[in-house]
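Work Package 3 (structural annotation) set out to generate three-dimensional models for the target panel prioritized at the project kickoff. During this period the team completed the workflow that converts sequence records into discrete structure tokens, so that structures can be stored uniformly alongside our sequence database. As a representative example, we reproduce one entry of 207 residues exactly as it appears in the project archive.
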Amino acid sequence: MPRLSEDTRARRREHILTSAWACFSRDGFHAASMDDVIAATGVSSSAVYRYFRSKEELIDATAEVGLGLVRDIFARSLEARPTPGPGRTLAMIVDELRGRTEHPDYDLSKLAMQTWAEALRRPPLRERTRALYAETQERLAELAVRWKGDGHLPANAEPEAAAAVIFALMHGLIVCHHLADDVSTDALVRGLIALGAGIAGERPTAA
């Protein structure tokens, strides 16, 4: 039997993984079984186990892809010229979330919520999640430094604090989408402006 090319192997692995995402989106990490995943792939069990030896490996790969996508949102922003400002960045986050819920077979935002719960249960996954989120916040802080330099933030603004707000908002939007109501970019911007003015009014020394 001829050896498979790296490209073919990558495509087969991706097919198995996205088939698992369909099962996980429908039934959750723990209710979905390996038999469900194998059936969804349409290939033999031996072919599936050649790439993923267990459901835990599928979950870990799912988390790695999802968390990496979050980190890469802001890596792309740093590469863009001109650098998108805070308002455009918020709009981009909302658009990204919408895009991840519209696939006909799976919902990556739903898998994100499952990943958080799984990370609380399994320390190795929690540490990997923390590491990838730390990279995300570093990129956000770099973005906020540019905002400050471009005049979008006041001269005494702390880039890390601005990054923390965006990071928290991004994950809150996922929770709102699934458990409350979606929040529009316009509502986010108006709310942040109102809160900023209110907080500044409470602190006379604030910018």
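The chain has nine helices and no strands.
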